[in-house]
Amino acid sequence: MEIEGLKLVQTCGACPEQYDVFDKDDKQVGYLRLRHGLFRVDFPKCGGEIIYTAGPEGDGCFDCDERDFYLSEAVKAIKLKLNEL
User: Fold this and answer.
1) What is the domain extent for residue 19?
2) Residues in the chain with pLDDT < 50?
């Protein structure tokens, strides 16, 4: 899937639901993970700086009505971080 020019590749569907995020040059710029009700965004990859957190209703995966919102918020956080560099 693509959001605002960044490519999200789902690497696990549930428990945790997680994604790797890549820029137009296929460079990894983010790692998204929802587990135990905590959604976080690491920059630029897993174990990097945590740049966004949230507490969606979903526990190991998003509820259907919240996925688009939180993935869009994650992309916004990554793009803000990229603009700082």
Assistant:
1) 2-84
2) none
